[in-house]
Each structure stands twice: as C-alpha cells, then as structure tokens.
Amino acid sequence: MAMSLKLNIPTNAPRGSPAFTQALKASFALHAFQADQVQFCKSSEESVSLEAPKENIKIVDINAIVRLFARIGGAPWKATDRAPDDAWIEWEEVVLRPRIREIQTVLDLAEKLLTKSGISKSGGVTPAQIILFSTLYDTIATAPPSILDKHLQLKSWYYTTLESDWAIEGIQKAANMTTVSSLDASSTKAVKKAPVAADKLPKKPVVIGTEADRKINDNIKMKIPAPGEKILPEPGKKNILITSALPYVNNVPHLGNIIGSVLSADVYSRYCKARNYNCLYVCGTDEYGTATETKAIEEGVTPRQLCDKYNALHREVYEWFNIGFDHFGRTTTQEQTDIAQDIFLKLYKHGYLTEDSITQLYCEKHDGFLADRYVEGTCPNCQYDDARGDQCDKCGKLLDPMELINPRCKLDDATPVVRPTKHIYLKLDELQPQQEEWFKKSVTEGNWSKNGRTITESWLKEGLQKRAITRDLFWGTPVPLPGYEKKVLYVWFDACIGYVSITATYTKDWEKWWKNPNDVKLYQFMGKDNVPFHSVIFPSSQLGTKDPWTMVNHISTTEYLQYEGGKFSKSRNVGVFGNNAQDTGIPPDVWRFYLLSSRPETGDTQFIWRDFILKNNSELLARLGNFVNRLVKFAAAKYEGLVPDYTNAAQDPAVGLFIADVDKLVKEYVKELEAVHIRAGTEILMHIAQRGNQFLQDNKLDNATFAAEPAKTAGVVGLGLNLIYLLSALCYPYMPATAESMARQLNAPLRTIPDTWDMDLLPGHRIGKAEYLFSMIDAKKEEEWRNKYGGDRKVEEALKEEERKKKADKKKAKKAEMKAKAGIVETVKDAAAAVLPEGSLNVGTSSVN
C-alpha cells in the first residue's frame, strides 16, 4: 500500500472503556500483522480512527481497521475467512456490548463461539482472534482468577494468547498511548482486586538486552577461538584430539553414515569445548582406492573430478547438519603422500615389511590385475551372491578376492583368470606382541565401547597374519620402492594415515597433536565395520615405526541404523540421505536430536517416521520448547525483562529439593559424556527439562500466583531462567542452534557445562526477546515422507518375505535337530537298559547330555 497511514489513539481512554478496547485491537493488529508503515499518533478523539491525509480518507470502524492491517501485513486471507470474521464482528459489536452485562453469560457465549468458529485451532493470527481477545481482556484481567474455571477451553486459549508476542507488545503499546496509568475510581478498584492485570501494563516496553545489561557470574563463558587462531595442545591441560571415520567419496552419506561417525564425534567435540578443554576435531573425505576408480568409470569422469564433486557434496551435507569440524580436508594431498610414505619406509627399515609373489585375479578383457573391489562374486561364508573382493556386505566377513565363488570382473563382467604378481606385506604377526600389550592398556584406560573391544579381541585371538598393503592401481599414494611404480598403497593402510595428513594441512605443528602421547588423548568414532583398521592395522603401523605416536585412547563405535525395518539403499530410493533431510523443511537440530537419541550403541536401531514426529512434538516442543517460551515471556511481561530477586528461594525445602534433583542430573550428564555415552546424554537432558516443567506446575506459575505470592513467583522465575541457561549448555553438544537461541533469549553468552548447577544469571540481569525453539510437525507428514523416501514397496516386501522365510527355515531346522537329539537319547536309554541291572539307570537330562 503506497498511501501514508496515521492511526489515531485516544489519550483519554481509561481501562474498561470502549476506547481502550479499540486501542488494544489496533495495537494487537499492528504487532500481529507487522504493519510497520502505519504511524502511531495520540489524539483527543473519543475513538480510534485511521487516516490517509493525502487521500482525505478516514476509517472509524475498528474492526475494519484490524482487517485492513491484516491485508497490509500480508496475512493469509481467503474468501472462506470472511464469513467467520463477519460473524465475530457482528457478535462483538451488536450482541456482546449493548445487550449482555452478566460476565458468566459473556464467557458462555465466548466459549460457544470459540468452539464453533475453530479460532482456537487456527494456524496463525486472524482478525477474529484479535477482536475476541481484546473484547475479553478487560473482563478477564480485572476479574478474580477463578473466573475462567468453568470455561476450560476458553481459559486455555486466553492464557496461550496472552503469552504471544503480539499480545504482550500490543498491551504495552496501548498502555503507553492511553491514560491507563491514571485510572478512574472504578478502574482503580478493579486493579486492586487483581494486581496481575495492572502489571500486565508496564510503564515502558521491554527492551532487548545488550551486553551492558548483563549481570552474570564470571568464568562461565565458553572459550571460542578467534578467526584464524589454531587450536594446539598445551602441556598440563586436557588436550583432546577427535577423529571420525573418513567418509568415502563415491556416494552421498545417509543418516546411518552420519550418526555412525561425524555426528557422534561432533557431539563429543562440542562437549569437550563446552568444558573448555583444548579440543581439535578433524575429518575429511577418503579419496584413494578402487572404489574411486570404479565410480569414476561409471560416471565417465576422472578420479580427481569425482573426488572434487563428492568432497563438495559431503561438505554441504555436514554444514547443513551443523557438524562443527575444526578442519575438514581430504586425503589426496602432498601431505598425505609425504606422511604415508614416511611411515611405509620406517616400517621397511625396521623389518616389518616383506615382499611376496602371489597369484591374483587378472581380467584379460581389459588387460589388468583386479584389486579387491573390482571383483564380485558369491561369499564363501554366507553364500551372498553380491559380495565384494575385500568384504561381504551381508555377513561382514573380510575376504580375499581369491576366496570368492564364481568371481567376475566388476568393470566388464568377464570371468577373471589367475596370474602371479608382487606385493608388499605388513608383518602383523611379528607386531602382534607389541600390539596386544598396547591394546590391553588402551582398552582399559580409555574404556572403549563394547563392540570395539570385542572385535579387536576376536582378531587377536584368531592370530594376526601378514597383510598386503599394496594394490595394482594407479589412483593412490605411490609405493616408494623401486619396481613398484605401477602400484599404490592399499587404501586401508593409507586411509587412517589421512587423519594425520589432514591435521598437517590444518597446522604445520601437526606433530604437537600426533606425536605427543603424554599430553594428548585421541578419541576415534566409527561404525563397527571400521574397527579392525583403527584398532589393529593402524596402531600396528604406528608401533612399527618406533616413533612416539599419539595412539587411540578411546574407540567409540556404533552398530547399524536401519530405515523403517530395512536397509538404506540409494539405488532403490530407500531411506533419507544427507541431501534429503534439508528438503523436509525440518531444522537440523531436530534431525540431530532424533538420530542421537536413537544412536545404535549396543545394537541396531531403526529410523521410524512416526517416532521422529513424536520425538519432536512430545519431547522437544512439549518439554523443552514450551518450558523456555513460557518462562521467557512471563519474565518479559511481569518483570520488564529483568531476572527477579530469587536469592531467598532456596530456603523453601521444596525448592531446595528441586535444586538438588537438577544438580544430581547434571553430575550424571557429565559422567555419561566423559565416558562417551552419547545417547544417555539426550535422556538426561530431557529429564532435566521435564523436571523444570514439573517445578513450574508444582508452584502454579500463573497470574494468580504472581498476584497472591510475589516473592514465591520471583523465586520460581529466577530459578527457572537459570535452569534455561543450564539447559542451553547441556543442549549445545546435541542441538547447537537451539543452545544459541536459548542463550540469545537470555541475553547471555554461550556458557560452559558445569560440574554442578550454580545460579549464574544474577538478579537484575536483563534478558532478550522470546523466540520459538521448535514447531509442531503435522502427523499427516508421516505418510507423505514414507511414500517419498520409502522406495519400491514391492521390493521391500519381497526382501522382508525372503527374510521371514529364512527365519522359518532356520526354526524348522532347529526343531529337526532337537528331534534328532531326542531320538539319540531314546536309543541310548534303550541300549543302556539292555545291559545294566534294573533300577541302576539315571537318565536325567544333565546325565544323558
């Protein structure tokens, strides 16, 4: 609208007057619909009016003005909205005001029309809501607190609306423009009956806090490095080096990949930083090896072009998920070549490498030796017919290509032949005594996760064998020995060295992290299939160099995250991949929390859309979001945005118990996170939020309590705001954007995670403006998302039916085996009875067995 508009508000408009109700409507509408171009003016008129002076236009119908502001502010407006709004206008102007004087009759009619119109379920602010709310405001606010006890739906809608931004700001604006501060006798009497209502009209609007308004305890601020500042370990301090398994560049990461390594590591990294430890988190894309060559051939590009493409794609996915790497690099660098070749040559120098001529599969069709992943066939262990030459994806067994049944070349489907070729082997058998001694110390001191411990023990118990660490490829780190110019280092010998080389691209002082075992603790995060390479092969390589390496202190592993009862599959369009999550419109923090709360730590877990929606609505929104929003808005409305004096609150035994409960939970949280029990932290976080909600409920934080028990209410609000500040710190590892919003609403810096709960927001500290942390997800989205990301249902059902059949066959075989055993027992009994004296045969189950 191009015209200049001027809104005239009568200055002589005492509480309870029609003019004051009109002023409220106009103020509410301005803030609700953000009609910023309208000029607010005080006037001596008897009612509110809207003028366009240049056009000589004047509107005096307040309801028409409200609807006009809705149009100016761009509020959604459908033809179907007009009839209900017209009904409300007629009811408010014609029925309610002139004819009805009895309050309960007004409330009865209001609740009836509220239900009929569906306003309480409206997804946004409408003129009808503003008309109804402003009409009822004086009636309810100046009446006894019990006035709405018989009208529960109206009560719920009214107090929810009362805490909305547009209501709070509109009341403040109307109070400043009218004579409400100099009330007439009748209004003064009403206010004395309900001081809550008077406080709802502060003399000045809430000011968003600034740093100068802060009153907080010292030494609680999280230490954040300045731009360009390198994070380095410091002697005598807690220095934590964190890595997550390097994602391979031949695919888009799915949710299982994300929770299995980078997200889990990010939580621990953020936790360490929120404890002000010296912590460095590095990761990057793993870019060498057969898989890269194969994928490049499939896409018709060079390996370098493929790596550039997927490195950028991975970065975008992780940036959206707010993964806070200190450095995200790649393995195709000169630093990788230099460090990997240095390790190789030191192993060679100390006699831990050996050359051997072996037979290897060779493809005559394209004239080349086939590295592991160029060979496919049937797994000799589980008969899966699509196993790779290095590993079976179904049973997880590591394989040699020569073991495959009916092998075939991945590139051209030809049947390969066997030919001799030379390779370099790492003598893991000779390194096993050193490796075992190190492992026993590390697994105990570092408290490894169970599956990391079990998998490593299994390898050691079976006995380590020499293992080839070179391959017949061209895309990889060159082997630094004469005669091996056409070979490269095996990717799983090379890949773990990527952590070191990526650190070297971050800082030239990389050895302060990687060759500093006395001052640095190394934590590594991965899926369980990556364990042997991090717990056996890489540590053995480090030990064999005889350099003072920083070796892994703690290995944190995950099982598998399944999708709706099946596996993620890009080819069958099953499951949510990294670039799909953003398309749903659900914020990253909700994804992060759901994945972390269902992290597959001790067994496989499932991603279920219904659970995802429920987790958002019933936990994040209902417990945490509502707790924060309710308190921040209450403090803004009742205390002009200042933390009230709560210093005497702890003298109440119930409050003391509440503080002790929270303090105990904080200690549990720290204990679990120090032990890298990541999923447990989400449970404790929600438990603390729920304890906060219970505290508000037990103390009946509402207008009536504020009026009747001001000291008690101040204590509850002051402690509640401090609990929000604590929760912001505990949220930070899991939901960093949520933590930042909470701190911003409190006008406070990101704070450290404490050992115990202290009150760090002091009385008189000015908070900021309320923000919504989470939004409701419509339950109908479940079916939409399942259809979009569920893949081919027929294929899924066929796979499930196949799995059911296998289980049934297995059960049938078990029964047959038990029946056969039972037959053997009967045969033994018959034979024994024939040769032993009568009564001497004892055939209890344990005896026969």
From TrEMBL:
Annotated protein name in UniProt: methionine--tRNA ligase
Organism encoding this protein: Orbilia brochopaga
Compartment(s) of residence: Cytoplasm
GO terms (BP aspect): methionyl-tRNA aminoacylation
Catalytically driven reaction(s): tRNA(Met) + L-methionine + ATP = L-methionyl-tRNA(Met) + AMP + diphosphate
Entry's EC annotation: 6.1.1.10
Ranges where the Methionyl/Leucyl tRNA synthetase domain occurs: 240-631
InterPro entries: aa-tRNA-synth_I_CS, Anticodon_Met, Met-tRNA_ligase_1, Met-tRNA_synth, Methionyl/Leucyl_tRNA_Synth, MetRS_core, MetRS_Zn, Rossmann-like_a/b/a_fold
Family of this protein: Belongs to the class-I aminoacyl-tRNA synthetase family.
SUPFAM superfamilies to which the protein is assigned, alphabetical: Anticodon-binding domain of a subclass of class I aminoacyl-tRNA synthetases (SSF47323), Methionyl-tRNA synthetase (MetRS), Zn-domain (SSF57770), Nucleotidylyl transferase (SSF52374)
Superkingdom field: Eukaryota
GO molecular function, one term: ATP binding
One Pfam entry name: tRNA-synt_1g
Gene Ontology CC: aminoacyl-tRNA synthetase multienzyme complex; cytoplasmic stress granule; cytosol; methionyl glutamyl tRNA synthetase complex
UniProt key word Membrane: no
The protein's enzyme class: ligase
